[in-house]
């Protein structure tokens, strides 16, 4: 079953007339309310940055296991830093619905390895880099980080326009930056393992931040929940090799909380490419994605914003800081 995920031309916001900006902002919010997702073309991130981001993703995971262990993430209730091996976290545990009765969910593994890095200047949760093996990687990632943070702020400004909120009333909650880069590698895998049902490339979940920005490769497999038919998932078209990069953006938990549940986080997962659905043998090709979790400043509240709380719609989420929320969520993963 296909779903038409809106593709919006973000240059209409970046370089448009006031009325084009307004239209884009409203279309953005409409898509987020309906799907929790949108695709943006002409997103303003230069193509050479996107290519560097994707090439560095592949280069990192091509390192030997032994090399990757030198910058491995330490498990715990805290922002993740460095490399996480296959099965290190159990993403499925982020969504209670995933867990069968009588199980704690530990058998619901993800067939993926990933890498996380926070703000370049982070003194609290220090980044881990593959310095000895890829000397330029850190500089490239820091460049990508800055450009993706800037793009995220522009998208959030466009959301303010769509929601008729004062300019910067949302973006002012994002300084200093606590966003994170996430690189994913889904290794080539036997279809038999994926067809058994317990192991997925990534089990269904929502992300923790405000919005998530994602560049995919040409393989396919990202799926989002169809809200008109809960618990069914539909594919997001993969990137076409001959077209400029499309940025996939989804609403994440912090925005759902800020909006007091009026704009819900997009539930998503990674499955086999659409052409391989239903096959129980053969090999599923490797896949890579380059992601940016745009987050609120650590001390900022992730409780509902006053403009979303009314006598008819009292607050449905607890007050806590963005860092407390991240600790709570990462604690569940291990
Ligand atoms: O690889 C993808 O397309 C999705 C990755 C994802 O959902 C995540 O890293 O949170
Ligand atoms: Fe995700």
From TrEMBL:
InterPro entries: DIOX_N, IPNS-like_FE2OG_OXY, IPNS-like_sf, Iron_ascorbate_oxido_reductase, Oxoglu/Fe-dep_dioxygenase_dom. Residues 177-296 form the Fe2OG dioxygenase domain. Keywords: Iron, Metal-binding, Oxidoreductase. One of its GO terms (molecular function) is oxidoreductase activity. GO terms for biological process: small molecule biosynthetic process. Residues 71-107 are annotated as: Disordered. This is Fe2OG dioxygenase domain-containing protein. It comes from Periconia digitata. The lineage of its organism: Eukaryota, Fungi, Dikarya, Ascomycota, Pezizomycotina.
């Amino acid at each position: 079953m296909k779903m038409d995920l809106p593709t919006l031309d973000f240059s209409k916001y970046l370089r448009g007339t006031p009325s084009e900006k307004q239209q884009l902002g409203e279309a953005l919010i409409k898509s987020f309310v309906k799907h929790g997702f949108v695709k943006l073309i002409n997103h303003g991130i230069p193509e050479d940055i996107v290519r560097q981001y994707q090439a560095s993703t592949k280069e990192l995971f091509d390192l030997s296991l032994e090399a990757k262990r030198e910058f491995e993430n330490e498990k715990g209730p805290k922002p993740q830093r460095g490399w996480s091996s296959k099965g290190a976290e159990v993403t499925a545990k982020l969504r209670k619905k995933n867990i069968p009765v009588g199980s704690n969910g530990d058998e619901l593994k993800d067939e993926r390895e990933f890498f996380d890095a926070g703000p370049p200047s982070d003194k609290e949760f220090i980044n881990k880099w593959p310095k000895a093996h890829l000397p330029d990687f850190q500089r490239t990632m820091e460049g990508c980080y800055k450009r993706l943070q800037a793009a995220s702020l522009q998208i959030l400004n466009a959301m303010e326009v769509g929601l008729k909120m004062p300019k910067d009333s949302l973006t002012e909650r994002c300084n200093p930056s606590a966003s994170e880069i996430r690189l994913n590698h889904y290794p080539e895998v036997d279809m038999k393992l994926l067809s058994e049902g317990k192991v997925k490339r990534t089990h269904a979940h929502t992300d923790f931040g405000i919005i998530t920005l994602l560049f995919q490769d040409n393989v396919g497999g990202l799926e989002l929940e169809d809200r008109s038919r809960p618990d069914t998932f539909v594919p997001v078209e993969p990137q076409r090799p001959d077209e400029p990069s499309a940025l996939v953006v989804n609403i994440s938990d912090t925005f759902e909380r800020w909006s007091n549940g009026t704009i819900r986080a997009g539930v998503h997962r990674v499955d086999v490419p659409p052409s391989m659905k239903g096959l129980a043998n053969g090999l599923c090709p490797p896949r890579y994605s380059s992601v940016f979790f745009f987050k609120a400043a650590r001390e900022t509240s992730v409780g509902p914003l006053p403009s979303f709380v009314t006598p008819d719609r009292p607050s449905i989420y607890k007050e806590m800081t963005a860092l407390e929320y991240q600790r709570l969520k990462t604690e569940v993963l291990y």
